[in-house]
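Please produce the structure of this protein holding uridine-5'-diphosphate-xylopyranose.
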Amino acid sequence: MDCRFVDDLQTNQEKINNFLCLGSGYVGVLTMTVFASQYKNKKFIINDKFKNVIDKWNNSGKILRKSIENINKDDVQSNLPIVEKNFHNLFSNVFNENLFFKNFYSDEEILATDVVFVCVNTPSLYSNKIKTNISIEQIELEIKRGIEHDMRNVFDCLEELCERILQSKNLLSIFKERIIIQKSTVPIETLKLIKDKIFKFFKNNRTRILEIIDAKNSHLLEYFEYDHKIFEYVSKYFKLVNIPEFLAEGSAINNLLCPDRVLLGYIKDDKESYRASLIIKSIYEKWIDKEKIILLDSTSSEMTKIVSNAFLAQRISSINSITGICELYGADINILSQTVGMDSRIGKNYLKASMGFGGSCLKKDTLSLIFFLSSNNLVVEANYWTQVLVLNEFQRLRISEKIKNCSLKRNKTVTIFGLSFKGDTNDVRGSNSIFLISYLLNHNVQIKLYDPLVTKYELENELKMYDNDESQWVNMTYCDFYLDSLIDSSVLVFCNNHSYFNNFEMEKLYLKMNDDACLFDLYDIFCLENMKKIGFKVFKLGVNDLNPNNFINI
Ligand code: UDX
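Below is the modeled complex.
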């Protein structure tokens, strides 16, 4: 075999045809779907270590395609694991055409791969159950230390990739230039750490490689003679780039098609990493304005991701910190969000008052920032960001306590509508509802639940992360029909803002409930006066509270 490996990857995206994505979660699947629909002539494989996840995508994808062949596209009901606006049609056009799901990638596929996307999840390194039964002071002590991201998935999948490349014993594969795009949210300086780990892998496996290199290709031996040569090998054949993702659930496809910015982070003083980011830039330029694609050092790009999420969290905590005083004085937080946000220096986004931010990112990334600051002895700065999270937990406890008191006074059932962490998604991670459910279960309150998108299985799976045991679940009933969930109930809580709720005929709901029914509108869905006219006693977050003239006395 005569190997002429060097410089086969030009600064030219046309040479790049095969993509492998490690991780079939939200970021990986949506990103690859958009890439595959932009580049119909290129091949995209999504790999996941969990076979059941890959099977789920393959089975639901096949059903989707079959039904589309038979009926009108718009009529198709999707069973895809992700519910996301505009995803369905895009996905059906590329699934099993140029986008494939595989539990195992073959040696041939590894050989063909030009770009690897790392999109595995990096949860908080926190193993304890989430507590809803502790004081705010105890919560503050827990937050103060910050929590790192758990990086095992990132390191494991890259080590497996290197191992598989070696196992193939194919010099073409070992000396194939690849771009590795790190997309998972990670602590600062991770890209450099990844390079170091790949370097250590090849250093530790030097003898295995030397055995593979045959006499005809002896010129390749020099790569493995000295440590600094191995480092050069890694730079050249594993070109690393960090591209943080800024997808928000519900608008993710739009975020991918028309992003505010795309950051391409290269390792400083590493010309191969810089070159790779230029190649990737040309790939993005097919559908994104040049000015929006920013090349920067990877430390800054990694930091931008974490700081952006911390800033979003900070804005929500800032507006939420004003809700209590609004309720006390009868000011309206929703008007305030609008009038404060009209100042163009402040801006209107992320000023919507709520029971707190949920989801898998804002809290996790702020905790990571706190960890980074406190482990560098930046105590005052760490304390500042700690308060952003303390406020969020305080808000959740404050509202949960009001709902509990209201229900105990009536000795009746609480009905909760909306289980996901925000409207129009089925994602329950970090959701306020699950926090509230856990809190109410710990106080022996009877609960009925309804959500048009979240299944009972998804709910129970998430609830297992909280500090109550399954024997308490007898107090909780999951209902398939919303009207059923109101029988025997005196308290109705809207715990997210699914657009589906806007169409509810509230008179009908009121009539199903017990006398003296209370409505907790936590997401500004309903007009206070209209609800009062129907007969509800209303708690509207950031609008009214203990004033006996117009509110519930709780
Ligand atoms: C977030 C970031 O927006 C995204 O850039 C990052 O990549 C991942 O984390 P996501 O978790 O999907 O995205 O949700 P987002 O829309 O940011 O909302 C987070 C939480 O904040 C939700 O619970 C939402 O209801 C709440 N929120 C948001 C408010 O309470 N008020 C607001 O004004 C905005």
